[in-house]
Design goal:
Length: 695
Amino acid sequence: MDNKQYKEALNLFDKQSKSPRDVIIYMGIKACIHLKEYQRIIDIEQKLSPATLNNPYIQTILIQFYMQNHDIKNAYRLFSIINNKSNHMYATMFKGLISNKMPENVLDLYEKMNIKANPATLTTLFSACSKVANDRAKNIGKESLHKMPNDYYNNNILLTSAINMLMKFNDIQSAEKLFKMIQNKDIITYGSMMKGYTENKEYDKVLDLFEQMPLKPDHIIGVLVFNASAQLLHDRAKQIGRQLLYQIPKHFHSDTVVLTSVIDMLMKFNDVTTAEHYFKMIKKKDVVAYSVLMNGYNINNEPLKCLQLLDEIKQHNLIPDEVVWIILIGACAQLSMLSKCQLILDQIPSPLFNKKYVQNSLIHMWGKAGSVENAQKIFQLVDNPDAITYSAMINSYGLNRMGLEAIELYRNMPYHLRDEVTYICVLNACSHSALLDDAYSIFNEIPQKNEQIITTMIDCLSRLYLFDEAQKLIEEYEKSNPPSSAMYMTILSGARNSRQHILSKQIYDRMKILFPNQKDSLISGSILLSNIYSSLGDHQEAENIRLNRIEQLGTKVKSGTSWTEVNGDVVEFKANDHSHPQYKQIYAQSKHISDTLIKYGYKYDPSWISCPLSKDETIESVLSSHSERLAIAYHFIQQKEPSFIQITNNLHMCGDCHRTTKLIAKIWQCEIIVRDTNCIHHFSSDGTCSCQDHF
Ligand SMILES: [Zn+2]
Ligand SMILES: [Zn+2]
């Protein structure tokens, strides 16, 4: 029946004599439900004869009506007066309770049920159990599954519902057993299994099952596989994800949900260009698609592109949701440019601005951008600060070398809110401000110390050259844990700063034995080691280590990016970047700065070079085209004698850039602030850096 017919049916119903037949009443109620004429149904029910009210069809449709109308009380009233309750009635009650978000009540009713549940009732019961998922639900669900008669095992809908339930109970094994028993597996069954694996974070199993599946994937499977590949990021996952991407039928390309998951996957594969290509294919771009693209830019170290999309969202008359704002704040934190931070902050709608998680990420943003004052202002606005609020504020103090303030806040925060992150933040703050006694007393108070907490303490000790104590902590840790390369790297970094070449060599040799497969750590370790020899004047040994590294470990290193703000615009430079329209001028300026530095006695330190030199490169040309150096040169083009330069770098500043920046600050009497992943370097015009060369 269509709408018009429902109206006609209701007219007919009204014209009926005083006691219409039950089937007419049934049709009348159905028409009322469809036309949302709720009051009329209540009137009809009141006029029904006891015999009609006893008709199971009438009873069931009335229950359905009350449930749809969220009138649980009347549904229960009607259900309780029914003498012979059928499976259909139970299933109707169950469905109604689930859609009214009362799945616990399904369990109550089921326990009182005195007839054998049929497959439809069990399907609904399993669905309720998976929603409740507490011990009681687990018992009821599993017991009913166990007692199921053999012929029920032919029912795909029932078994799929049971698989969903078992997966929600994190009982993967039983779900797999059941899955194997299903003879005619369809695409929905496969989809349920993969969804269950995803919920249990068993992404490898999603891919295994996908490879075994003899059916063509549908949209749902596509999204699940792309998602699993994006989570795993290993070679096999990348291969499967890409292969599916090139095989999916063309009509998938018009599905926004599929394309959004493709973009997310490609961004996590660091394939920005292809991700952008798929984004362009989305005809009706929604806020979710934008947020995935923007998040992808943040992951791939392109916060400027992320920020630029805000205008595009607004041009398309879309309203950015809270996810988008959090991503934008994240982009600002990456960029750490005060003006951009303020620009985004001013646009956040006020109801959102008052939400705690937004305020928490704003504290983090200001802390990273070096504005403790603004971070404090937000902190004071937070109603009932939580663990994240405190950690964000403590970390802001730490990043800006305000160790004492960090400790004070840590001491004043409610004890029960302290967690691993707080411990790491406060220890890090102690470490950067060289507050050893405080670090020790906090460290000793921590009930359970994990790898990261201990590494932070080792960092604190190594910065103060207390290597014996640092090594004791490692020994203690390794008694009950596998060795951690992060701990060794931390000591090595301290040993480099104190130019202890014997200790450094010992540690690096040990790393080669302990972590033969951790190439990234070994590369960083080897760079530190060659730095030490170089700083001791043993350039031959430094060069040997460097060449060895290139030969044994390859040359894959992350390229650095720097951002700087000139006349209100944020400009981005990558290492060896030739993309800027003024690049020739910039390189000439960088060379000019280098020549001046050399006149002041500066020598390039080749130990910081991590790749083999190509034919047209020299040590000088490579080091002076590091992204920070290009950013500084750009300032000198814009202004003859800049007095203030702010730069954000996505990696650790290399020692050569650190040394040249100190000199530049001194020679040109310029204040330079460089924020790298580790800390904020404040270079003063007296030629020193606030990190006291611990970086
Ligand atoms: Zn550098
Ligand atoms: Zn520094």
